[in-house]
Amino acid sequence: MSHAAVRRDPRTWLAFVKFEHTLFALPFAYAGTVLAAGGWPGTATFAWVTLAMVGARTAAMAINRVVDAEIDARNPRTAVREIPAGRLTRRDGVLVAAVGIAAFTVAGLALNPLTAALLPVAVAFLVAYPYTKRVTWACHLWLGVTIGAAAAGGVIAVTGAFTAGAVALWVGVGAWIAGFDVIYALLDLEFDLREGVRSIPARFGPERATDVAAALHALALAAFAALAFVTPLGAIYAVGIGAFVAPLLAAQQLLVRRRGPAAALQAFNANLWVSGLVLAAVVFDVAFAGGSGW
């Protein structure tokens, strides 16, 4: 580990938890609340869902960084991260994780009895994820299930119950997350093989891994399409998924197939648009097709 000076400034903290990656899942949680409420879910619900999502995402990233600090230090791509580089300490990471879990817990308790009851399960999944890559190549699926639950959580926050819409969102987001995590793992293929880190690319090779990612994204699109059959969503939503989300997922698959692992990061970053597009499709459909709740 580097002996660089510890730097506990806002930029370092935000970089440590990759705050911008909150955009991967947060819009899906908002989409779930809008869909369940038939419009604006209310300021209190919106605020609690936001706090829950930011807290859970922050805790998950901090736990991952703390647990993986030694692995990150040996990987040239990740050695510049805050803990291996010495800009933050493991104790700092544990503190960030504790704050994130506390925020997540407060929000879950404030929403309804079901969100409160599910808190221990959610925390267990968050804590376990960094260890899965040490024992199974299916770690990407675990990550998908964990983050996909956030979308279902948006529905549950409003309804206080599991619904078919919550399940469809969970499957869709989970498959989408797992698919792009497989693509992201292409960046560390050689390192993972050398160090014994488990991943789908390391287990099956880059070509099969790309096929698996494509299959997962196809499943995600199927789940997003199914959402329109189990909820009142209609034509506006269908156009949003078919004309924008599907081509974006297809484009990242083509990019990786044509340019190989070198294009993995570019393809991965394209996913920042997916959740926002799905949210927009849900919001416009609810607002203009059926939304007296706005």
Topology, pairings included?
Blueprint: H1 10-16, H2 26-37, H3 43-67, H4 69-74, H5 82-85, H6 90-111, H7 113-132, H8 139-159, H9 164-185, H10 189-195, H11 200-204, H12 206-230, H13 235-259, H14 264-269, H15 272-290
Helix pairs in contact: 2-3, 2-8, 2-9, 2-15, 3-6, 3-7, 3-8, 6-7, 7-8, 8-9, 9-12, 12-13, 13-15
Number of strands: 0
Task: Provide the low-confidence segments as ranges.
Answer: none
CATH topology: Tetracycline Repressor, domain 2
Biggest beta sheet summary? none
Strand content: under 5%
Number of domain modules? 1
End-to-end gap = 53 Å
Structure class: mainly alpha
Q: What is the radius of gyration?
A: 19 Å
- The CATH homologous superfamily name equals UbiA prenyltransferase
Task: Indicate the CATH architecture.
Answer: Orthogonal Bundle
Can you identify the CATH class? Mainly Alpha
Work out the oligomeric state of the chains in this entry. single chain
* Helix-residue proportion: over 70%
Shape: globular
